[in-house]
Design goal:
The complex is a heterodimer of chains A (600) and B (387). With 600 residues, chain A is an alpha/beta fold. Chain A is built from 22 helices and 22 strands. Chain A has an eight-stranded mixed beta sheet with strand order 16-17-18-13-19-20-22-21, with helices on both faces. Chain A is globular. Chain B has 13 helices and eight strands. In chain B, helix 2 packs across helix 13 and helix 5 runs antiparallel to helix 6. Classes of the chains: A alpha/beta (600), B mainly alpha (387).
Chain lengths: 600, 387
């Protein structure tokens, strides 16, 4: 053991607290990183993983302070304790020897300076290089992090770049001074899956080329498996398990790690399991039939006298699908694909372009043309179709108790007596796995997962037939996500619910859905049963999505060739899939009930 | 901490001895510290701001004391004393001359060079001051009870003008105390009026958007761009001179309110716009809730507190407005007493130079305006107590 070189960073007994009276938020944490190695710190929200990274960089939020601990950092012949270093010395070290990548590149980059100036500033502060040399180094780094035109990137402002490119700029800033350690705090969480895959790959190749160590803070076990050598699992500020990725993910020893690994959804396993599932019943008993759904936003008007110039934005184009009663249709797409707009139009929260048809047939057998309903008929329709929102923190009014939240739909529709409503609220709470003792509480006392359960209970209060779920788990921790998905499945069986499930997350969808529709740029590009879609994806975009989804499987590496082929805009897709503008090929049936948008 | 992993042991596989129970984790409250109604959380947060708390307590005391202002005034505010014109402030001496509190009567003698009276304390003649005693004419407490009980009574046969007297020999302290009644309430009435207008117009603009929003927003900009002081002057000048002091007072409040609503309307509008996009409001819409229910049950409770903070922050400008109008002689009219009217006496620079105590009303204006600002800031900061 003594023959091995000392680690690059050895943290012992790190304890961070928001005040002497409060329990520590990071509690006795110890770990080490070797030069050139990747350590992943995994945890859910509130686990203290972000504060750990910030404590090392000396950028803890106001009120938080390091109570005790050491962080011995050995690089460039120096050996210093990051936690006891004076602020000025720590600043010299940060940026030069330690780089940081933040989660949200838009807020981490100054909007008033060009990307080039911000990256160059790192070198200006930490080196004595002449200006020309600094510029050359920056341009070289920009090329290295994958900017197609480094010169243009140098002169660009952050808002001129896409999310993925912004994160690349952030990475350039972190690595331009050739640090020995990069701390990356959820570097890809704000990005779409396909972009995430490319950014992760970039980090990995940079690391290999430069021999820098990476401390990767993440909640995603899939990312861990794709990136890390060693992993430390944190829960509520304490270390639960640590070791090599193979040991911790392959044979988790702690109950919490086991729960995390079990909760992480996997495409491959699910697709295999789904093949046996019977094809859904014929469309004869469709609860929802949508055809010709379009949404065009007028160009933005600037001021009172502007009539609006520029082209209108086509958010949704020619969407059609049928949802058989008692089944789940998942609509998958990245941000801006139009999936949420589809859901909102079906719910009449937004007006569809003329010519669309949304037919809803309730249990009573009566066919309703949703887009023309009004007054009492619309109110009756609302009782049959309910929505679960993405953000459980925003979906519950902070001024109402849980009981008020759950009884409100009943009050609106004048169902039951006030006393019976309360009993029903208690029953709903039990149904979503929460204790009825919580009824008198207010939403802010609950965790995200508990709030989402309450929101689901509210959606169930009117005994709906169709539940529209808009990214219902994307704001939740992985273990909570698995529980909520389990709840959705149980409810489906118990109440015969049908789901329209909107998501950006393919593995989650593989878990839940019978049918999947993949959307990109407002159109459905591939649609079919889960087994067909995952077992035999045809469209390059679907294949890119599947290839890009990180999974907690040790042997699986991201296939970037597939990602690169399908992740671009439609005109970059290979024939016969690619198209320009509105000139899209039709959906073609490649196998029974499996449709792909391609030229015949 | 037992069995901490050794950072040097890089191949080890550390497993914490702590347990984990998923079922228990499900029921556990995430934020036990936030397990209370919003109003209690707001109060908890507000309480931490000592300055705001002290300001709130001071203002509460001032407003609660208004109906009983006469108790704190040693004299009737209109009582003139021809022997004590422009008399300087007089002190109370505690534990002197074998008494708890005495004052020395001020004796005046005419300065033959300037022909102005010069006041000096007659230290050979200590007079006892009475506290919580009956003296002077009756005053009306809370509009019903008539009494002459006062906190401080001048000694028998002598005067006690703690803040001096004005050009008619009226006691400045007593006028200050009674003047608070009008000066402090003008802000409340004005804010109530501007609140009503701002709520309705801002609500219309925020909820309906489109044309209503454009119309209200333009109206706000037009009213905002009017020069404030000339409009005040023009409107106050239009009040018929024959009106009694109470009607004039009400009209002044109305004028102040009519010109102040744009700020509140803007606050309401932006809050409405923000809340309409909240998912819980959308959820209520998708439940089939009526517009009235959405506004009443979901939006109102979530923004009234913001409005209270905005209103609190706009009271000071009302008080200052009344002071400015009265100072210029276009606000309240004598025999009404207000801080602005008292400062009207101080318009003359020479008077201020020789009789600086005439500026005394500036102190309460200053204190009250600051207190409202601190209180409003504290309220605003406490409104989002969920973090």
């Amino acid at each position: 053991m003594s023959s091995a070189p000392p680690p690059l960073l050895a943290v012992t007994d790190l304890t961070v607290s928001f005040g002497p009276a409060l329990p520590p938020v990071v509690d006795g944490l110890s770990f080490s990183i070797d030069a050139g190695q990747t350590l992943a710190i995994v945890g859910e929200s509130g686990s203290g993983k972000t504060l750990t990274g910030r404590a090392l960089m000396g950028i803890l939020p106001r009120g938080a302070q390091v109570v005790r601990g050491r962080a011995q950092f050995r690089a460039g012949g120096e050996d210093s304790d990051l936690l006891s270093l004076p602020a000025a010395a720590l600043r010299r070290l940060c940026g030069k020897r330690i780089g940081m990548i933040f989660q949200e590149p838009m807020s981490a980059l100054s909007p008033l300076h060009t990307v080039g100036a911000q990256v160059a500033e790192v070198l200006e502060l930490h080196s004595a290089l002449p200006a020309a040399e600094i510029r050359a180094r920056c341009l070289a780094t920009f090329a290295e992090v994958g900017f197609p035109d480094p010169g243009r990137a140098f002169a660009a402002y952050p808002f001129e770049l896409s999310g993925g490119l912004r994160q690349r700029a952030m990475i350039a800033m972190a690595v331009v001074a050739e640090p020995d350690l990069v701390i990356a705090d959820e570097p890809t969480t704000a990005l779409d899956v396909t972009t995430q895959a490319q950014v992760l790959d970039l980090l990995k190749s940079l690391q290999a080329r430069r021999g820098m160590a990476l401390m990767l803070i993440t909640h995603d076990l899939g990312v861990v498996c794709a990136m890390a050598d060693r992993v430390a699992v944190m829960r509520r500020g304490r270390l639960m398990e640590a070791g090599s990725v193979a040991a911790v993910i392959g044979a988790p020893g702690h109950a919490y790690t086991r729960a995390l690994v079990a909760a992480a959804p996997q495409v491959a396993a699910q697709a295999a399991a789904a093949t046996e599932a019977a094809a859904p019943a014929a469309a004869a008993d469709a609860i929802l039939a949508v055809s010709g759904l379009n949404k065009t936003y007028p160009p933005r008007r600037r001021g009172l006298f502007d009539r609006g110039r520029g082209a209108p934005v086509a958010a949704v184009r020619d969407v059609a699908f049928t949802l058989p009663r008692g089944s789940t249709l998942a609509v998958v797409g990245e941000s801006g694909s139009g999936k949420t707009t589809v859901a909102r139009m079906i719910l009449r929260a937004e007006r569809a372009d003329p010519g669309a048809r949304v037919a809803f047939r309730g249990r009573d057998g009566q066919m309703r043309d949703v887009l023309t309903l009004d007054g009492a008929a619309l109110k009756a329709f609302r009782a049959r179709v309910q929505m679960v929102f993405q953000d459980p923190y925003a979906a519950l009014s902070p001024r109402m108790t849980v009981a008020e939240i759950l009884t409100e739909p009943l009050a609106i529709h004048g169902r039951l007596s006030p006393h019976d409503r309360r009993d029903r609220a208690a029953a709903l709470m039990r149904q979503v796995g929460l204790s009825p003792d919580h009824l008198a509480r207010y939403p802010h006392a609950f965790s995200g997962g508990q709030r989402q359960r309450i929101a689901i209970a509210r959606a169930l209060a009117l005994d709906p037939e169709l539940l529209v779920c808009d990214e219902p788990t994307s704001a939740l921790d992985v273990s909570v996500q698995a529980q909520v998905l389990d709840l959705f499945r149980a409810l489906k069986d118990a109440r015969g619910l049908s789901y329209l499930f909107i998501s950006h997350n393919l593995p989650v969808v593989a878990d839940m859905a019978d049918q999947v529709a993949v959307m990109r740029a407002g159109r459905i590009v591939e649609q079919g049963p889960v087994a067909a879609l995952f077992g035999n994806p045809v469209h390059p975009y679907t294949r890119a999505l599947i290839a890009a989804s990180p999974e907690p499987v040790l042997t699986r590496r991201l296939d970037l060739r597939l990602v690169a082929q399908g992740a671009g805009p439609p005109h970059d897709w290979p024939a016969p899939f690619g198209y320009r503008g509105d000139d899209a090929p039709p959906l073609t049936e490649v196998a029974p009930t499996h449709f792909v948008r391609m030229a015949a | 901490m037992t069995a901490a992993p050794d950072p040097r042991d890089r191949d080890g596989h550390y497993i914490s001895p702590e347990g984990y129970d998923a079922a228990e984790a499900l029921q556990e409250l995430d934020r036990r510290d936030l397990d209370a109604p919003t109003r209690r959380l707001v109060w908890r947060r507000f309480r931490r701001n000592r300055l705001a708390l002290a300001s709130g307590a001071l203002l509460a005391f001032l407003y609660l004391a208004l109906p009983f202002a006469g108790f704190f005034a040693p004299y009737d505010p209109a009582q003139r004393n021809a022997d004590a014109i422009f008399k300087p402030p007089q002190a109370i001496h505690f534990l002197t001359a074998g008494r708890f509190a005495v004052t020395y009567p001020m004796v005046s003698e005419l300065d033959l060079e300037t022909f102005t009276p010069r006041f000096a304390a007659d230290t050979g003649d200590p007079r006892p001051v009475r506290f919580v005693a009956r003296c002077g004419p009756d005053w009306t407490a809370a509009f019903v009870v008539r009494t002459n009980l006062r906190l401080i009574c001048p000694p028998e046969g002598a005067d006690l003008n703690l803040l001096g007297t004005d050009r008619l020999g009226r006691d400045v302290l007593s006028r200050l105390v009674i003047g608070a009644q009008l000066s402090l309430t003008v802000g409340l009435i004005g804010v109530a009026i501007s609140f009503a207008i701002g709520m309705v117009l801002g609500g219309l603009a925020g909820y309906f958007g489109g044309l209503a929003d454009a119309a209200v927003s333009r109206a706000i900009e037009i009213v905002r761009s009017l020069p404030e002081l000339p409009i005040w002057l023009a409107l106050s000048a239009a009040i018929p001179p024959a009106w009694g002091p109470v009607s004039v007072f009400l009209m002044i409040s109305v004028i102040l309110g009519l010109l102040d609503w744009p700020g509140l309307a803007r606050a309401v509008r932006s809050k409405f716009l923000a809340l309409r996009e909240e998912e819980y409001v959308r959820a209520a819409e998708l439940m089939g809730a009526s517009t009235g229910r959405i506004i009443g049950r979901h939006m109102m409770p979530n923004f009234t507190s913001h409005l209270v903070a905005s209103a609190t922050l706009s009271i000071p400008s009302m008080i200052l407005g009344e002071t400015a109008l009265s100072l210029l002689g276009l606000g309240l009219r004598p025999p009404a007493v207000s801080w602005g009217l008292m400062l009207n006496d101080a318009l003359d620079l020479t008077a201020v130079e020789i009789y600086p105590w005439l500026l005394a009303p500036m102190l309460p204006v200053f204190v009250v305006v600051l207190a409202f600002s601190f209180l409003g800031d504290g309220l605003r900061d406490a409104l989002d107590p969920y973090s």
